[in-house]
Backbone:
């Protein structure tokens, strides 16, 4: 008889599409995601781009990109997580959370929620739907 912990652990693992990929595929997907997110962050808030997913997903994406250390500041150092969140919220018209670190932690653990990580969904769109830029579907330009 399986324990509750074993049943819950098994369910989480089977929901993560990214875990079915090779290490090289996951690395490539992370690099692509970071590059595409960097392109979004370079946009102006005046372009009226709006994030269509949850704030938790945006913070999860920001943290995933931060962990790649691919975004660099003017002096070549990895861009700080708080700076990434601040810029993402400004460009994508999202209210900046008070504690993005806590949100990132909660997004990583997604306990009791039938939701996989944003990275896993990104991988699914990239590899299964053959989307060249999965982030495009998560952002919408609104004319007001």
Residues:
């Amino acid at each position: 008889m399986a324990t509750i912990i074993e049943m819950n652990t098994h369910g989480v693992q089977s929901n993560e599409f990214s875990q079915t990929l090779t290490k090289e595929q996951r690395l490539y997907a992370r690099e692509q995601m970071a590059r595409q997110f960097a392109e979004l962050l370079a946009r102006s808030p005046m372009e009226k781009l709006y994030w269509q997913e949850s704030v938790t997903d945006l913070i999860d994406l920001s943290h995933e990109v931060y962990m790649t250390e691919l975004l660099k500041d003017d002096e070549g150092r990895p861009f700080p997580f708080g700076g990434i969140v601040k810029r993402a919220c400004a460009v994508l018209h999202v209210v900046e959370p008070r504690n993005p670190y806590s949100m990132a932690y909660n997004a990583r653990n997604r306990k009791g929620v039938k939701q996989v990580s944003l990275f896993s969904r990104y991988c699914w769109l990239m590899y299964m739907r053959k989307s060249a830029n999965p982030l495009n579907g998560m952002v919408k330009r609104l004319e007001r």
